[in-house]
């Protein structure tokens, strides 16, 4: 969704006047900085390549071409192939109902449809596994994954639905298509970009998620890597599993590019599009109400109910102020510092991609984006190995943990920054230089100041991602560091569900602002 | 508006700065660092009692046996750890094999019976745990229980038993199997296990599954049952414990170990900690606390089956080959 939102905005962002005016200068400093960040983001990939050479082809073959890897691949393929179509159906159904029909309380349901994002995926499965203790295996994994991730599809699909030009649908209807056909042949194809973007995001999350699947007892590469890590630290076996996982991620990125296609979706013609038609549901209103109610009940009702129940059972005793306060403070500080750092490091690239887009910049930008698609477990493995072997002073330090956060959330930081830099007119920068400010100061004092709201959004997005990060934090945390997520995790591993509840509640509370922000953002994209 | 936003930015930066400095400082404080692969709650109890008795501050890092063992080897001389505590002995052997342990003080060794420590005195046992077959009392009666852990390889047991194979506990049990029955028998048993068993993440999850009638039994350690019974019994009310006895590999008594790292810059304090854990103070926590692990110095908790009645196989705790175990389990497709 984030990548998608940025690509939506990309088209509007590039229409600035700079295309007609020659660029002021080749921006060597910004390019150099962006190059450094891009090289840094290639580290996990380089690590996999290095390790592969390091252990030799024989060992690689032994560790990669074995039945266990095949099993994990099959599990992964099943998981992706089943979860994504179901998520698409749920998300498109909900989006259609809340955006294009006269469903009662549709504003309310539209907010509710995004709300599950405020609950981290592993809290979703914690809620379900304590609600129905027998849950396990593929179908349970799919069930919880759909509930946890469908909003990633709902957001872009709902935003696209709002912007569709009804004239096309009218044309279809006047040529004799039934309403259902209009939906299938006119509306759905126009949602392609949104569906592809959202599906990619879900697919990547399915690859990198650890906590959700451990609780539901479904083995994926991420869980198997952590198993290996726990039995043998960063052994060749875990590194090779990491290599296969990275290949899967790259394959998904490629697949999305192919499926996305090159069709044109923009509207031509004078004036603006009419507001879209609101379909009357009539007698279908009640059955149609069932879908949003059911989804909300499963994706929000059950987690809130189980969290409430554990809190009730635990009473005041589970609110151990010192442990909880400590975890909260460390989480807040790490997220804030990580968010600021990620945004600062994303700035040169964000600025370049708006002010001086070119072929080299495009490549550098791709580096910034790809790294965010890597699972936390791979990034952590890479950093553990690199620091323990070559940079021992950095090993198990905040610097390394923050480096992992930066890598994982660089794309999130790019999104907000890019958009708001694009909105800062280059003419102001030029005027400032003409009035005597050195170019670098002009950029800082004009553009970055104007881009501050976007930067704040970037910091918030990255920070909230960090606050709920589990695997990399588990593997890299310096001595004495416990975040809400890691405390929650160690308590649930001891089956102490009661004591874990306050940590889950705090994570949900922390995630609410981001969810709200995403919801409002998707409305803004649609100009509402 | 502008000044407000600038003020709040400054405030946020200041807050982050002080907070960051605070946690960096907290992590970097005085005292010793313990890599604790024992149960987090037991580790905390030991540490709190030790700090209370001596005033020495302890920072604990929580993790798994083999994870820490391999981590210590990679960290080498630069390791921040002063003391390493495990749940099982193979991890100790691995670290000892890399020459990373300092010899344990003679006074500490004198507290520990010979059978619970290696001959070279580079680490020492700190607690014991017995392998059991935790079974569903509503489904299995005594006569239907397996006579030996090896029986679980029988096709008749397909889908009926569970374990937590990624954990060091189970890997130590496999280590004992390897030590008593040899490589070929172990590889075969593991192959059958891949077919027959259900893999859980953690022994508590496994016993919970037995209790919920998901599987009929699980190969785990004894104290999960006692611990749950002492709390609510909610996760073990349908569960009974079957001890294999007869020197069966499934009667294996695993030794938890403790050692001081050679690279430690706080040798004295670290040795003192180990002495405390193996001495009266530490062992009383085992005897009277809720961990229900066997004390190795003095009497075990009265609720447990006495060590001499376990009829455990004679296995040299320092000879368990964890590397081979992980290899065999990886080859069997379990890991």
UniProtKB/TrEMBL annotation, chain B:
<comment type="similarity">
    <text>Belongs to the bacterial solute-binding protein 1 family.</text>
</comment>
<protein>
    <submittedName>
        <fullName>Iron ABC transporter substrate-binding protein</fullName>
    </submittedName>
</protein>
<keyword id="KW-0732">Signal</keyword>
<feature type="signal peptide">
    <location>
        <begin position="1"/>
        <end position="26"/>
    </location>
</feature>
<dbReference type="Pfam" id="PF13343">
    <property type="entry name" value="SBP_bac_6"/>
</dbReference>
<dbReference type="InterPro" id="IPR026045">
    <property type="entry name" value="Ferric-bd"/>
</dbReference>
């Amino acid at each position: 969704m984030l990548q998608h939102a940025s690509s939506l905005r990309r088209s509007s962002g590039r229409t600035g006047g700079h295309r007609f005016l020659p660029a002021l200068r080749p921006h060597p400093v910004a390019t150099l900085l962006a190059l450094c960040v891009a090289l840094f983001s290639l580290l996990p990939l380089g690590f996999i390549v290095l390790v592969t050479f390091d252990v030799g082809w024989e060992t690689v073959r032994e560790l990669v071409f074995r039945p266990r890897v095949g099993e994990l691949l099959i599990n992964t393929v099943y998981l992706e192939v089943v979860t994504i179509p179901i998520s698409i159906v749920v998300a498109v159904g909900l989006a259609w109902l809340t955006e294009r029909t006269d469903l009662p309380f549709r504003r309310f349901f539209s907010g509710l449809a995004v709300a599950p994002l405020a609950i981290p995926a592993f809290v979703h499965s914690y809620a379900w596994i304590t609600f129905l203790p027998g849950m396990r295996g593929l179908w349970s994994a799919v069930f919880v994954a759909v509930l946890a991730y469908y909003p990633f599809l709902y957001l872009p699909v709902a935003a696209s639905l709002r912007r569709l030009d009804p004239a096309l649908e009218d044309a279809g209807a006047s040529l004799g298509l039934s309403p259902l056909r209009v939906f299938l042949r006119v509306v759905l194809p126009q949602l392609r970009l949104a569906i592809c973007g959202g599906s990619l995001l879900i697919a990547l999350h399915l690859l990198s998620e650890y906590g959700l699947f451990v609780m539901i007892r479904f083995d994926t590469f991420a869980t198997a890597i952590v198993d290996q890590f726990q039995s043998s630290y960063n052994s060749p076996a875990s590194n090779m599993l990491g290599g296969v996982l990275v290949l899967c991620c790259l394959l998904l990125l490629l697949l999305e590019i192919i499926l996305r296609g090159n069709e044109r979706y923009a509207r031509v013609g004078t004036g603006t599009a009419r507001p879209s038609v609101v379909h009357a549901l009539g007698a279908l209103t009640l059955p149609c109400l069932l879908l949003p109610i059911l989804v909300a009940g499963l994706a929000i009702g059950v987690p809130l109910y189980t969290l409430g129940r554990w809190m009730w059972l635990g009473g005041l005793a589970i609110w151990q102020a010192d442990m909880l306060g400590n975890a909260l403070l460390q989480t807040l500080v790490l997220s804030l510092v990580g968010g600021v750092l990620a945004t600062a490091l994303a700035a040169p690239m964000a600025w370049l991609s708006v002010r001086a887009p070119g072929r080299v910049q495009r490549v550098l930008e791709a580096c910034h984006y790809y790294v965010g698609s890597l699972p936390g477990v791979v990034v952590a493995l890479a950093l553990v190995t690199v620091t323990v072997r070559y940079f021992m002073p950095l090993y198990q330090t905040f610097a390394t943990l923050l480096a992992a956060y930066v890598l994982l959330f660089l794309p999130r930081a790019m999104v907000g920054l890019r958009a708001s830099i694009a909105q800062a007119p280059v003419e102001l920068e030029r005027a400032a230089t003409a009035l005597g400010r050195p170019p670098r100061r002009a950029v800082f004092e004009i553009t970055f100041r104007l881009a501050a709201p976007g930067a704040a959004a970037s910091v918030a997005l990255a920070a909230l991602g960090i606050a709920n990060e589990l695997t990399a934090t588990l593997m890299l945390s310096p001595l004495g560091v416990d975040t809400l997520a890691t405390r929650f995790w160690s308590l649930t591993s001891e089956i102490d569900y009661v004591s874990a509840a306050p940590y889950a509640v705090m994570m949900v509370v922390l995630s609410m602002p981001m969810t709200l922000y995403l919801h409002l953002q998707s409305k803004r994209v649609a100009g509402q | 508006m502008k000044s407000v936003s600038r003020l709040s930015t400054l405030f946020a930066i200041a807050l982050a700065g002080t907070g960051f400095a605070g946690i960096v400082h907290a992590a970097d404080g005085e005292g010793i660092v313990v890599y604790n692969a024992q149960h987090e709650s037991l580790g905390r109890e030991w540490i709190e009692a030790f700090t209370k008795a001596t005033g020495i501050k302890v920072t604990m890092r929580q993790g798994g046996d083999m994870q820490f063992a391999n981590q210590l080897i990679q960290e080498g001389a630069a390791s921040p750890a002063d003391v390493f505590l495990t749940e099982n002995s193979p991890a100790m052997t691995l670290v000892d094999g890399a020459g990373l342990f300092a010899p344990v003080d003679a006074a500490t060794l004198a507290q520990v019976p010979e059978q619970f420590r290696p001959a070279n005195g580079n680490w020492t046992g700190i607690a014991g745990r017995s392998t059991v077959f935790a079974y569903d009392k509503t489904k299995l009666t005594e006569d239907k229980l397996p006579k030996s852990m090896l029986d679980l390889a029988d096709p008749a047991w397909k889908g009926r038993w569970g374990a937590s194979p990624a954990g060091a506990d189970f890997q130590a049990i496999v280590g004992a199997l390897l030590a008593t029955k040899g490589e070929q028998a172990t590889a075969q048993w593991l192959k059958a296990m891949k077919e027959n068993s259900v893999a859980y993440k953690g022994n508590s999850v496994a016993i919970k599954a037995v209790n919920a009638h998901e599987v009929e039994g699980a190969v785990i350690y004894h104290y999960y049952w006692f611990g749950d019974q002492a709390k609510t019994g909610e996760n073990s009310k349908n569960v009974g414990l079957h001890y294999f006895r007869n020197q069966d590999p499934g009667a294996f008594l695993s030794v938890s170990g403790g050692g001081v790292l050679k690279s430690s810059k706080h040798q004295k304090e670290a040795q003192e900690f180990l002495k405390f854990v193996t001495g009266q103070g530490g062992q009383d926590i085992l005897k009277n606390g809720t961990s229900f692990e066997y004390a190795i110095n003095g009497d075990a908790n009265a609720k447990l089956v006495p060590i001499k009645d376990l009829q455990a196989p004679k296995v040299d705790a320092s000879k368990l080959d964890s590397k081979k175990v992980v290899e065999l389990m990886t080859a069997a497709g379990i890991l």
